[in-house]
Structures are given as C-alpha cells and as structure tokens.
Amino acid sequence: MKEVWSFVLEKVKVDKRLLVTYCIVYFLWGLGMNWFGAQMEIAKFTFWWQVITCYILYMVPISLVLRGLPFHMQYAYGLIAMGLLEFSGYALQTSYAYPNNMLDQLFNIRNFSLGMALFFALYFPLGNWGVGKIYNVLVKK
Hints:
The chain crosses the membrane at residues 18-36, 48-66, 75-92, 112-131. Keywords: Membrane, Transmembrane, Transmembrane helix. By secondary structure, the chain is mainly α. The chain contains 7 helices and 2 strands; from the N terminus they run ααβααβααα. It has one domain (16-140).
C-alpha cells in the first residue's frame, strides 16, 4: 500500500501552472455539463458548488494520476472512479436525475447510472489530452 501512495503522491506533484490549468478547465467543464444536464433535463447536481468537489477535488487528482497512461487504461480506471462517483451521487441524493429523461427513454431507467459512468469516464483521457494541449500553448509563451 505504501508503494501505491508513493506513486500517487509523485504523480500529483506537478507544476503549479499545470494544476491551475486543470482546475480552470475542469471547473468550466463541470459548470457547462451541469448547465447542459439541467437545460436538457437529464441530470444535475443538487448544489452548484458540487462542481468544485466533483470536478476539482475528485476528478483533477485522478486525472493527474492517470496522466501519461494509454487512452484505454485511463478510460478503464476512469470508469471505476466514475462508477463510484455516480453510484454515490445518486445513492446519497446529491445528484438529481430528471424523471423520464432522454437517457431513461433511450437506455431504460435501470441503465441510467451505468450510461452516465460510461460517458463520464471519457473525461479522464480527453481531459488529460485537452489540458496537455492548453498547458503546452501557455508554457511556450
């Protein structure tokens, strides 16, 4: 277990500019997705500030740990992380799924959380790719 913590701590020790880039990108991404989910009446956070806890305090560290892994590994590990997050969000009722939303209609209500986890697991490889591109542009200036 000590080796795992050493690995994690080493991966999250990054340039402060990279960390700020992750936080800004993920915060804006989270606000946008929460807004979109509410507008489309799919799902939303119960409180707006959950964007901070989920996207910055949960997803940014996981993204940093997964950074540098192949796409499929980032997605697979991200699926575990998002499965736990989706399950706990709906179980604790800190996330709200609109009744009879478009995903319920398309996939069935019993598959809603699974569908959300499968979709949001893409955040880790796509987020790492996008933040990497933005960071490289900012650092080169």
